[in-house]
Amino acid sequence: MDKDRVTVGQLSLMLMLVIAGGKFLGLPGILAREVGHDSWLVLCVGFAADAVCLCFLLWAIKLNSSARLSFDNVLNVTLGKVVSKAVMTLLFVVYMSRSVMLLSSAYKMFAVTFDVNTNWIFFALPVVALAAFTLTRGFTALARVSQLLFVLITLSVLAMLANPLYQVKWGSLLPIAECGADKIFDTAVRQSYWFSDYIFIYFVIDKVRMKKHVFLPMLSVFVAGAAITVLMNIIFVTLYGSFAPNFELAMSKIGVFSIGGNEAGRWDWLTLSLWVMSVILKIILFIFCAYKSLEKIVGFAHDKFNWWAIGVIAAICMLSLFVSEDDFVSKFLNVAVYPFLLVQFVLPVVYPLLTRAAIARSNGGVHERT
To answer: Within a 10 A sphere around the Cβ of 367, how many other Cβ atoms?
Structure first.
């Protein structure tokens, strides 16, 4: 049995959890510093680009339903091994950098919100170990865990947003697009690194169990996840106004407005604890993809677990001991975001064409043309 097989439904639920797991932490504060109360418009632009790219990837999944060519196979056949390894290298950097950034944000949330002070090594290594265990069980196991946790995580997010929603001053969003359309689109491009959550699909694109409908379930949950994220951002910037740029952890700040009476205690800690599982799932998912891309770069056999790859990943996660998050964003990300666009947004758009070309050059091409 293939340990990486996944259904369309599981893929859909994972996509929504991944969206919820990343954009509720540092991104709202970053966007507030850039464009103020218009940050929700930047999210809309980013999600619109994501929707287009996701549609192309779903199209590629349908094209590949019979041939079932793997991601690296398609790249090797159409672009050559050198370009394929370059793409894998870019993806590895994207996956690992986002994993480390998510780890850093989760570490801060535990320290600030839950008042849990621990060493970075003892925080990051258990997560990497959990990711290693997941790799031995396969993508299917991660998809099933996402199914089990989906309702709990979704309800926790809605519970945290429900009470603050009544306190939102919608007039503070006016005037709309005050910073100008050029500034909004420019910010969307420079902060595009935080989008394209669908890129994990690359490594299961040949493992999807096809059903009659692919676009409807995937796009439905994507729209739902995007809408909740935009709503969260609106709540954050309207509640905190000019102070919003000073906060790094948006969801924990929104949770303050979800606190019940003194008799009930701080039940927001419970909902935050449930929601943070989506962050851990996203970290594990990206480490899974980083592991797969590293295997493709080095060219080792894939029929057994490669501990050396996990060792490399664990070592990279330790970089936070030496490089601050601010230095990473200002010195690396501001430059790397542009080559990252190639694998985050350009590759999904051209991937159906690459898939068609690869199928035409393989034995599966006969079945696709009949």
So the answer is: 12
